[in-house]
């Protein structure tokens, strides 16, 4: 079974229906992808052309059809392993997959990643041999076999026989033989050279013996001469050292005096700098005080002006309040008069006139309605002819009147409900008004308390701001001191670095950072440099301790060597300098027995104090150091005790005999520099702590101020919000009061003006209804009765009287109403409103002040109280401002006095500095003179030391000295005599200038090399013999394989050809070199050796066949194309039977065969596929029906939109498809033959005949159209099959 994805023309092909284990046929049009299917199988089976793929070759395998570009492709083949052909245990199926992409080529076995060599070994074991590639026969391979020469067929036979392996082994063996032969030749050359050198070296040994005797004499005399010169140089050097000692003592005194002067200059410079900084700080302070003074004076003046303005405002407010009081009294009198007139005169007259007008109007309406009733009664007598009709009409009118009465009753009830609702609403609003009024009073009290709290917080903020200023001034002073201390620490650190080696300084600077990064515990794993870990018992030991420790002062103490290794690795990695480490676990410190003498004492216990944790490091550095009283004592005890002895002045006597001394510049002392650095760092840390504390206090004050400011802002926001709430509530109170007044007016209107007219109208309707009711049942008459006429006359008279009275009363009512309206407007809009405004201005409390601020009034009692309160506040602030200005003035005077003092001190310091500078110049001149004298002595000392070193070096260069007996011979000679003797011996030695001083060693080495080379040559000879035997064995095996393969292929060729051509016969003929000769002797020789020929004589393989029972045989060159193809297939089948494979792939192998031979090939495949002994699987692609007929399963390949697909077909569909293809080929063949004949006729026609040419062109067009129609028809006919696109 095979699965293909993105391989060439195949896009996403699902699993193909499993192939039959016997014969399988694959059909499809040209270009549909059959060859790509066979390439996919070869791709997985690692055929030569797919074994190694370059990038462009992998890219070419990816599908390039429609859609997105493929990134990778794979082909998976599932093999049936029921016969265990593949060497995999418990696997009935073997799954091989190969995936290829732009940058990958991967293999999978049983869906697990595998290596190419593993896959190749598995395939070789299953029978897929590289030597026999004919289990896959693609297009063209049959034709290639047909055109092969005899020599090419012989080469093919050798490949099938597997001679390539033998050739590779033989080539390797020959290469090995060539290497051995070359090695033997080189060994012979070297042995010849060694024998020559050994002969020469025997003579050189004798000369070397005589030379060595003379050389011993020369070295003995030279040693005696150099020893005498060395003693003389040492004596001279001692004299110079004594003179230098005196010079050094004088120079030391000068240096000490210069150092003291330098220290004094630095101290004066520091004092000058401190005074300058203090003067500068005082100037800054004075400038600040001047600014504060100006601000204080400005603030005081501003407060004075504000106080004066507030006093004027208070006085003016008192006058305004008195005037308002008088106005209120006057308004009260006017209001009383107006109300008295309104209540006692105008309002009673208004009520009386309105009542009269209403009564007379009602009477008039009643009279009018009675008159209308009488007239209506008379009209009904004329309108109706019967009493019953009239009564019916009256009943309808009574009904209408009853409805109108009911409607008026409902309206009256609605007005009553409206009046009740207005009363309830007014009552609720009055309660709400009382509640809001109480709430406003409560909030006013809260607002008053809040205002007082805000004032207190602001006062607290001002006090804290003054405190912050003082804190800032103190912080600035401390900051200046910190900067000075930091500068001093920087100078001390710079001095320390100047006397520290640069690489060590870099390393120590980096170690602090590295220790922190590596998380190494300080005090447990890392202890710092040596001088950090001890203290001097007394300052007088400083020089001695420093000389004793020397550069070990900068050695770093750590706990273990692993810690040291970590730190050194980081230093080396980051290139950060070099440091010496003292790992405590690796220091080998032994117990020391100190001498018991008052002249010397152990430096470790007498001079320093240290932590017991680092005792081993201290013992390592100071353990063998003694403090001596003098140089002589130091020299004595250093050699006696084996320890270094140091004097208090720093002279060192080494236990090895060396003496070190002279002037020591204490100004460049490392311990002093370190002590100054520690002191400056401690001072800096102390000041920094003080600075941080002051910064903390300043920050705390800032935070407190910010907190108070935030509290003030919060309270002010709360105050503003509360004022907003009070204002809104007061607005609501005013709105509610207005609503209550409106409701009262509405209730009065309903009670007085709306309800009475409705009640009158209801009474009138009732009287009309009663009259109509009374009329029912009376006699019908067209004329009025005497009573009706009398009533009508009386009613007219009454109506006229009432109209006159109504007119009179209405005019009076209007006059009273205008006067009443005037008085009410005067009271409400003028007098009462003005009185409320004056009362509000005169009322006390925060709400009045607030209302005044809202209304713009500035003369209320609250405003006046506010002004008084502000005046008191400003007066207190003014007092504070006066006190503050006084304090600032006092501080300014004090600062000016301090400035004057600082200037005087600075001038004195400058004068002292100039004197010290002059003294320093004198010291410098004296030092230069002393230095010149010391340099002269030093030059002499250097010359003597050079001579001493020279003679010591010459003695060392003499090497091993002769025995003491030979040296004593020349001891008594003088230096000049020794010089003459040495010159005489040197003349004798010149005769042996060419002597080989390594003759003895070379003779021994060459002898050993000769023995080694002889042994190696014997081993190479034995190896060459074994290689020759191997080559002969390979040649024999190769010849046997070729002969065995030829016999097997020849026998199978006869059988296969017999099966394909039952009446014919065929054989393979081996062509040898003897076949090329023509003499009789050569023929006899050929005949005698033909049963066991030599493979080296083979020249090619010929083929002789016949296709009839009798007749002569034909060679390949004599056969037709179809016969050649048949013979080539017979050879392929013969090779396959000789070396069987698990399955065979044939790509159109029957292309060149006629139907008879195709049937024979199909029958042969069918027999071999269904063989009981050795059944074989065949997968063949074809365009012919013979292979399809014998196939067990058929498959079709279609191609659509540049994508190939494989489909399982029935044999009937496959045969139908083949038939369509064959019909198409026949049609195309007829068209082609007809076109060819017509073309020949056209070529014979005359060139100027145009009409026949037109006809021929027309005919060609018709043929082309017919050909297209045939193709379309074939496509349509095959559309029913699944493989047609």
Strand content: 5-15%
Spatial sequence of strands, sheet with the most strands: 2-1-4-5-6-7
Total strands: 25
Shape: flat
The largest pleated sheet is described as: 6 strands, antiparallel
Unreliable runs = 844-859, 1078-1092, 1243-1285
What is the radius of gyration computed over CA atoms, rounded to a whole number of angstroms? 69 Å
Termini, distance in Å?
24 Å
Q: How many helices does DSSP assign?
A: 27
| Class by SSE composition | alpha+beta
Q: Give average pLDDT, whole number.
A: 77
Percent in helix: over 70%
What secondary-structure arrangement, pairings included, does this model have?
Layout lengths: L1 E4 L6 E2 L9 E6 L5 H11 L3 H4 L3 H7 L10 E9 L12 E9 L3 E5 L2 E3 L1 H11 L9 E2 L3 H6 L3 H12 L1 H221 L3 H112 L3 H16 L8 E4 L4 E3 L5 H8 L6 E3 L2 H14 L6 E3 L16 E3 H4 L1 E3 L4 H8 L2 E4 L2 H11 L2 E4 L4 E2 L5 E2 L9 H106 L10 H57 L3 H10 L5 H97 L6 H5 L6 H16 L8 H62 L4 E8 L7 H10 L8 E9 L7 E2 L5 H18 L4 E5 L7 H15 L7 E5 L3 H6 L2 E8 L2 E7 L1 H34 L5 H28 L8
Parallel strand pairs: 3-23, 3-24, 8-22, 11-12, 15-16, 22-23
Antiparallel strand pairs: 1-2, 1-4, 4-5, 5-6, 6-7, 9-11, 10-14, 13-15, 16-17, 17-18, 19-20, 20-21, 24-25
Helix pairs in contact: 6-21, 7-8, 7-15, 7-16, 7-18, 7-20, 7-21, 8-15, 17-18, 21-23, 26-27
């Amino acid at each position: 079974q095979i699965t293909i994805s993105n391989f060439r023309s195949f896009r996403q092909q699902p699993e193909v229906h499993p192939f039959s284990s016997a014969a399988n046929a694959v059909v499809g049009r040209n270009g549909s992808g059959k060859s790509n299917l066979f390439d996919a199988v070869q791709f997985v089976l690692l055929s030569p052309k797919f074994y190694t793929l370059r990038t462009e070759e992998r890219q070419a395998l990816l599908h390039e059809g429609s859609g997105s570009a493929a990134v990778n492709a794979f082909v998976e083949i599932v093999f049936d392993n029921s016969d265990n052909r593949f060497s995999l245990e418990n696997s009935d199926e073997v799954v091989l997959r190969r995936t290829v992409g732009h940058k990958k080529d991967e293999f999978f076995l049983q869906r697990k990643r595998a290596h190419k060599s593993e896959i190749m070994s598995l395939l070789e074991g299953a029978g897929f041999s590289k030597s026999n590639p004919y289990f896959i026969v693609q297009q063209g391979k049959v034709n290639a076999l047909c055109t092969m020469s005899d020599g090419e067929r012989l080469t093919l036979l050798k490949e099938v026989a597997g001679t390539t392996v033998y050739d590779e082994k033989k080539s390797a063996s020959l290469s090995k033989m060539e290497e051995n032969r070359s090695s033997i030749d080189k060994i012979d050359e070297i042995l010849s050279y060694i024998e020559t050198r050994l002969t020469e070296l025997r003579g050189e040994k004798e000369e070397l013996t005589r030379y060595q005797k003379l050389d011993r004499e020369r070295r003995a005399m030279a040693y005696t001469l150099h020893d005498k010169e060395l003693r003389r140089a040492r004596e001279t050097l001692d004299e110079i050292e004594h003179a230098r000692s005196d010079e050094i003592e004088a120079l030391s005194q000068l240096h000490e005096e210069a150092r003291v002067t330098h220290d004094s200059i630095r101290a004066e410079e520091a004092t000058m700098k401190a005074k300058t900084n203090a003067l500068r700080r005082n100037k800054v302070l004075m400038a600040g005080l001047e600014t504060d003074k100006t601000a204080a004076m400005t603030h005081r003046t501003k407060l004075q002006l504000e106080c004066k303005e507030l006093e004027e405002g208070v006085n003016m407010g008192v006058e305004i309040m008195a005037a308002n009081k008088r106005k209120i009294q006057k308004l009260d009198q006017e209001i009383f008069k107006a109300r008295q007139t309104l209540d006692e005169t105008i309002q009673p007259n208004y009520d009386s006139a309105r009542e009269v007008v209403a009564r007379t109007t009602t009477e008039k309406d009643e009279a009018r309605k009675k008159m209308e009733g009488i007239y209506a009664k008379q009209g009904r007598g004329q309108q109706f002819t019967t009493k019953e009709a009239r009564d019916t009409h009256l009943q309808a009118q009574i009904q209408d009147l009853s409805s109108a009465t009911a409607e008026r009753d409902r309206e009256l009830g609605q007005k009553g409900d409206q009046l009740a609702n207005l009363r309830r609403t007014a009552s609720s609003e009055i309660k709400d008004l009382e509640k809001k009024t109480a709430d406003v009073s409560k909030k006013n009290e809260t607002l008053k308390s809040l205002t007082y709290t805000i004032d207190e917080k602001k006062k607290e903020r001002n006090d804290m701001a003054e405190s912050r200023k003082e804190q800032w001034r103190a912080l600035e002073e401390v900051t200046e001191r910190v900067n000075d201390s930091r500068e001093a620490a920087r100078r001390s650190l710079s001095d320390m670095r100047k006397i520290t080696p640069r690489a060590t300084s870099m390393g120590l600077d980096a170690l602090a950072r590295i220790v922190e990064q590596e998380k190494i515990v300080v005090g447990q794993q890392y202890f710092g440099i040596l001088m950090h870990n001890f203290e001097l018992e007394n300052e007088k030991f400083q020089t001695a301790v420093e000389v004793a420790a020397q550069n070990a002062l900068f050695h770093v103490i750590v706990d273990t060597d692993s810690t040291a290794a970590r730190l050194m690795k980081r230093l080396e990695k980051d290139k950060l300098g070099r440091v010496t480490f003292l790992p405590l676990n690796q220091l080998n410190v032994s117990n020391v027995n100190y001498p018991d003498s008052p002249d010397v004492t152990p430096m470790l216990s007498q001079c320093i104090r240290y932590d017991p944790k680092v005792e081993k490091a201290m013992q390592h550095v100071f353990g063998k150091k003694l403090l001596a009283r003098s140089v002589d004592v130091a020299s004595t005890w250093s050699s006696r005790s084996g320890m270094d002895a140091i004097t208090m002045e720093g002279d060192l006597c080494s236990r090895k005999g060396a003496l070190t001394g002279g002037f020591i510049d204490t100004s460049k002392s490392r311990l002093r520099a370190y002590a100054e650095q520690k002191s400056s760092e401690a001072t800096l840390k102390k000041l920094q702590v003080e600075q941080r504390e002051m910064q903390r206090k300043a920050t705390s004050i800032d935070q407190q101020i910010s907190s108070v400011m935030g509290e003030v802002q919060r309270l002010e926001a709360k105050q503003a919000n509360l004022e907003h709430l009070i204002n809104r509530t007061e607005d609501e109170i005013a709105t509610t009061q207005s609503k209550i007044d409106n409701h009262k007016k509405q209730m009065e209107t309903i009670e007085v003006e709306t309800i009475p007219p409705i009640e009158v109208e209801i009474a009138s309707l009732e009287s009309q209804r009663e009259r109509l009711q009374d009329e029912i049942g009376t006699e019908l008459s067209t004329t009025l009765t005497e009573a009706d006429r009398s009533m009508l006359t009386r009613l007219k008279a009454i109506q006229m009287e009432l109209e006159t009275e109504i007119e009179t009363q209405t005019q009076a009512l209007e006059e009273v109403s205008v006067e009443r309206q005037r008085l009410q407007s005067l009271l409400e809009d003028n007098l009462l409103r003005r009185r409320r405004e004056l009362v509000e201005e005169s009322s006390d409390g925060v709400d009045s002040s607030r209302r005044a601020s809202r209304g713009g009034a500035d003369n209320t009692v609250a405003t006046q109280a506010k002004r008084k309160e502000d005046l008191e506040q400003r007066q207190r602030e003014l007092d504070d401002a006066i006190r503050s200005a006084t304090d600032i003035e006092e501080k300014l005077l004090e600062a000016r006095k301090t400035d004057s003092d600082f200037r005087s001190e600075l001038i004195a310091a400058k004068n002292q500095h100039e004197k010290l500078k002059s003294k320093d110049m004198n010291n410098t001149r004296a030092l230069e003179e002393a230095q010149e004298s010391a340099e002269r002595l030093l030059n002499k000392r250097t010359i003597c030391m050079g001579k001493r070193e020279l003679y010591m070096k010459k003695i060392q260069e003499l090497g091993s000295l002769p025995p003491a007996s030979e040296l004593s011979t020349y001891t008594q000679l003088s230096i000049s005599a020794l010089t003459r003797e040495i010159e005489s011996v040197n003349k004798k030695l010149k005769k042996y200038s060419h002597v080989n001083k390594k003759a003895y060693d070379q003779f021994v080495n060459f002898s050993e090399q000769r023995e080694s080379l002889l042994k190696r040559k014997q081993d190479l000879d034995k190896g060459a013999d074994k290689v020759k035997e191997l080559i002969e064995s390979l040649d024999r095996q190769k010849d046997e394989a070729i002969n065995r393969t030829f016999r097997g292929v020849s026998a199978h060729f006869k059988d296969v050809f017999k099966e394909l051509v039952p009446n014919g016969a065929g054989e393979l003929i081996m062509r040898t070199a003897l076949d090329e000769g023509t003499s009789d002797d050569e023929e006899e020789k050929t005949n005698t050796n033909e049963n066991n020929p030599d493979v080296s004589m083979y020249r090619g393989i010929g083929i002789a066949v016949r296709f009839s029972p009798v007749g002569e045989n034909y060679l390949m060159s004599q056969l037709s194309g179809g016969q050649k193809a048949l013979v080539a297939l017979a050879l392929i089948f013969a090779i396959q039977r000789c070396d069987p494979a698990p399955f065979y792939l044939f790509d159109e192998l029957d292309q060149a065969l006629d139907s008879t031979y195709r049937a024979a090939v199909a029958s042969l495949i069918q027999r071999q596929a269904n063989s009981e002994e050795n059944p074989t699987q065949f997968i063949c692609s074809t365009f012919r029906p013979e292979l399809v007929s014998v196939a067990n399963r058929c498959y079709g390949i279609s191609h659509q939109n540049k994508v190939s697909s494989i489909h399982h077909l029935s044999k009937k569909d496959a045969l139908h498809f083949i038939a369509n293809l064959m019909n198409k080929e026949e049609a195309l063949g007829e068209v082609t033959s007809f076109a060819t004949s017509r073309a020949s006729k056209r070529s014979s026609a005359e060139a100027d005949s145009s009409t026949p040419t037109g006809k021929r062109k027309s005919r060609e067009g018709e043929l082309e159209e017919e050909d297209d129609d045939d193709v379309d028809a074939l496509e349509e006919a095959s559309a029913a099959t699944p493989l047609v696109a």
